[in-house]
Amino acid sequence: MGTKLALCSLLLHLLILLAACDGSDSGTKDVDIQSSPGGHNHNAHADMRIEQVHSHSSSHMHHVDSSLIVFFFLEDLKLGNTIPVYFPRRESEVSPHLLPREEADAIPFSSQELHYLLHFFSFPQGSPQAIAMEDTLRQCETKPIKGETKLCATSLESMLDFTRMILGSETQIEILSTSHLTPSNTLLQKYTIMGIKETPAPKMVACHTMPYPYAVFYCHYQESKSRVFRVSLTGENGDKVEAIAVCHMDTSQWSRNHVSFQVLGTEPGASPICHFFPADNFVCVPSAASMQE
Predict the structure, then answer these.
(1) E strands of 166-255, at which residues?
(2) CB within 8 A of 188, min separation 6: which ones?
(3) Strands (E), 7-142
(4) Helix, strand, coil shares of the chain as percentages rounded to 5?
(5) What span, in angstroms and rounded, lies between the C-alpha atoms of 21 and 261?
(6) What Pfam family does this protein match (any one) (predicted)?
(7) Which residues contact 140 (CB under 8 A, 6 or more apart)?
(8) Which residues are CB-contacts of 233 (< 8 A; sequence separation ≥ 6)?
(9) Residue 54 and residue 70: Cα distance in Å, rounded?
(10) Do the bridges between strand 240-248 and strand 273-276 make them parallel or antiparallel, or are there none, so unpaired?
């Protein structure tokens, strides 16, 4: 009963989360998925990345793709401080569909099966859709860094299983996601920090959307300490966002090629690195009730 309740709760949250994504033009390239041999009509975003990034307000910014302006330093997280942030928007009607486990497990999820998968989804070799799928499979198959546990969840059930494995099978799970309180077509602007509230999280699982014909979430847990914040932001044009931010306190095991280091002009282990989550990504943490038990 507890598992079914948790599954229903997670499904409801995800459906609300995906449906609530702003319908304005996201500025990203949509990958139109035609009807597959299985009869599904799928869509994905070719340029969605595992790492959602942002930039420090510094001289590095003019060298950075605007979509990467999501990273910042912990010391930037101060009331009244103003920082630039890029928040991608997605159209809910073209969001990839969540598949039940039985259906997802019946479809291979392996780069070795890419030729078959392209035929299955009717994508030409070398097309934007094919390139996006190949990149997703490659990233999902990449070995995790030291101290990291990861899973590319192809179904709601597999996502829940992974989260409960990390947080505890009896733990009540709270799902945190970014909310846009006002409609907007502005993707990148300066935001003033109006409020900060830290959410106690001895463990957390972060899940990021991946470009694929059906919904795939890259979920991962790092043993090193991370801090989770709810941040109230007000944009230059009046946009209001209740954003989720995660600060990684130890980056010493990260690759020197990690995009955050390039954006912020720093290196592994030099300082904590924080980033905002776009609206269709989320963080799973133990609920306050679970931690009091």
Answers:
(1) 173-176, 179-180, 188-199, 205-210, 216-222, 226-235, 240-248
(2) 66, 69, 84, 85, 86
(3) 30-35, 41-45, 71-73, 82-86
(4) 30, 30, 45
(5) 29
(6) BURP
(7) 109, 152, 210, 216, 218
(8) 85, 191, 192, 193, 194, 239, 240, 241, 242, 243
(9) 2
(10) antiparallel
pLDDT tens readout for residues 148-203: 999 999 999 999 999 999 999 888 999 999 999 998 889 999 999 999 999 999 99
| DSSP letter (8 states) at residue 277 | P
Q: Structure tokens of 183?
A: 């409609």
Residue 194's alpha-carbon distances to 67, 183, 241, 244, 248, in angstroms, are: 23, 19, 10, 14, 22
Using CB atoms within 10 Å of the CB of residue 209, give its burial: 0 to 12 exposed, 13 to 18 middle, 19+ buried. buried
Residue 156 exposed, middle or buried by CB count within 10 Å (0-12, 13-18, 19+): buried
Bridge partner list, 152:
218
Dig out the tokens for 188 from the structure: 């990148």
Q: How confident is the model at residue 293 (pLDDT cuts 50, 70, 90)?
A: low
What distance, in Å, lies between the first and last C-alpha atoms of the chain?
Answer: 20
Percent of the chain at pLDDT > 90 equals 64
Q: How many of the other CB atoms lie within 10 Å of CB of 85? A: 23
Query: Given a cut of 90, is residue 101 above it in pLDDT?
Result: yes
Give CA angle at 173 (250, 144), nearest 5°. 40
What per-residue confidence (pLDDT) applies to 92? 52
Rounded to an integer, what distance in angstroms lies between the CA atom of residue 130 and that of residue 125? 6
pLDDT surpasses 80 at 24: no
Task: Identify the CA nearest to 185 among candidates 132, 225, 149, 238.
Answer: 238
Q: Average pLDDT of 239-245?
A: 96
Q: For residue 281, report the phi and psi dihedrals to the nearest 5 degrees.
A: -105, 165
pLDDT one-digit tens code per residue, 203-224: 999 999 999 999 999 999 999 9
